[in-house]
Design goal:
By secondary structure, this protein is α+β, with helices and mostly antiparallel strands. The protein has 13 helices and four strands. Helix 8 packs antiparallel against helix 11 (about 275-315) and helix 9 packs antiparallel against helix 11 (about 275-315).
Length: about 375
């Protein structure tokens, strides 16, 4: 019964103040309509894109040097990196300069807080976030729908440029490292080539395999002919029927082969002819130098190929993002929602007036002069 009486009392108070409540609500509605009509219409343009996989700029994948399957879409980490780029000051400064936002937002560029205000104003109209499909939605509001679409597309292209620049900066550092390494290896190769030429000239060994085989054959032939010649002479010298000229000729051939063997086995360092001792002394050094020279040339060739592949990737325009939907000029405004504003203000005015009426009715019997003294 008490609650019913209280509720009836509230209705009675509202009924007594009905004209005041009506007038206040009508005034609030009229004011909110007038103010909402003065508000500018804002249009929101949105572009949607996915991150591209940074592995697309990997030379191994570009030239098919690996068996891995190419993934064109980036991971969650790549998505987070694009979101960070979308919120960077570099992007904000680019948009301010590109679209002359100081003038567009009527902000004094010479003021001390001018840069802060223009960035704050831009951020209030700009949004870049992941959607439910793990894509990035980039939206910009403006009073001009054409400008809103142009700004959204420009911001997306700038994010792409930032991502490409970061990748190319890494590639440029890698190219510089390869250039330095190639320069150093070329110098080492020149030194090895000079050392090899000097060693070959010193020992007279230019084709170790062929010359070694030739020396072995010459020594084996000389030794065989010497053994055969001596055996013949021992037999034929005892035969009185053999002419002395034949014996002399055989002795001459034997002496020739003995001299040849002596030359091949000579230890004289001053001789200019190739000897087995000279060959054995020079062959190990020349073999090592030739192997080092070959390995250096092989490694240099690999580094040059790798360098050219990285350079090709560096010069290729590989996007950092994949556009799903470019921004187009919106046909419908995004705000203000004038009907919602009017309804909200009317409801707030009604509730405020009712509360004021209840308070006035509850404290009408209090003698305020006695309280305030």
């Amino acid at each position: 019964m008490e609650n019913r009486d209280n509720l009836l009392g509230v209705f009675q108070t509202v009924y007594r103040w009905r004209k005041t409540i009506r007038n206040v609500c009508l005034l609030a509605i009229a004011g909110s309509i007038g103010i909402s009509l003065l508000l500018k219409n804002y249009y929101q343009a949105t572009t949607i894109f996915y991150p591209a996989s940074p592995r697309l700029a990997n030379p191994e994948l570009m030239f098919g040097n690996t068996g891995q399957v190419t993934d064109y879409y980036g991971s969650d980490h790549d998505l987070d990196r694009l979101v960070e780029m979308a919120g960077s000051k570099e992007l904000e400064d680019y948009m301010v300069t590109r679209f002359n936002l100081y003038e567009h937002y009527a902000i004094d560029s010479s003021a001390t807080q001018g840069p802060h205000k223009v960035r704050k104003r831009f951020r209030s109209l700009y949004m870049a976030q992941k959607n439910k499909n793990d894509a990035i939605e980039l939206s910009i509001e403006d009073t001009d729908p054409q400008l809103a679409a142009a700004m959204a597309n420009a911001a997306r292209d700038k994010i792409n440029a930032i991502g490409q620049r970061l990748t190319k900066e890494s590639q440029a550092k890698l190219l510089a490292a390869f250039e330095d390494n190639i320069k150093r290896k070329r110098a080492e190769l020149d030194l090895l080539g000079d050392s090899l030429q000097r060693t070959q000239a010193t020992f007279g060994i230019y084709s170790p395999g062929a010359q070694g085989e030739q020396l072995s054959e010459q020594l084996a032939t000389a030794q065989s002919e010497i053994t055969r010649g001596r055996a013949r002479l021992q037999i034929l010298e005892k035969d009185p029927l053999i002419p002395r000229d034949t014996i002399a000729y055989m002795r001459a051939n034997l002496n020739a082969y003995e001299q040849q063997r002596q030359q091949l086995m000579s230890n004289d360092p001053g001789t200019e002819n190739m000897t087995i001792k000279r060959y054995n002394e020079g062959y190990p050094t020349i073999a090592i130098l030739q192997d080092l020279h070959y390995q250096s040339r092989k490694q240099l060739s690999y580094d040059l190929e790798r360098y050219n592949q990285i350079l090709a990737a560096y010069n290729t325009d590989i996007p950092a993002l994949l556009v799903v939907e470019p921004a187009e000029p919106p046909l419908i405004k995004s705000r203000p929602k004038r009907s919602i504003i009017v309804l909200t203000v009317a409801l707030a005015a009604f509730l405020f007036t009712v509360l004021a009426a209840l308070m006035a009715d509850a404290y009408q019997d209090i003698r305020w002069k006695d309280i305030t003294g």
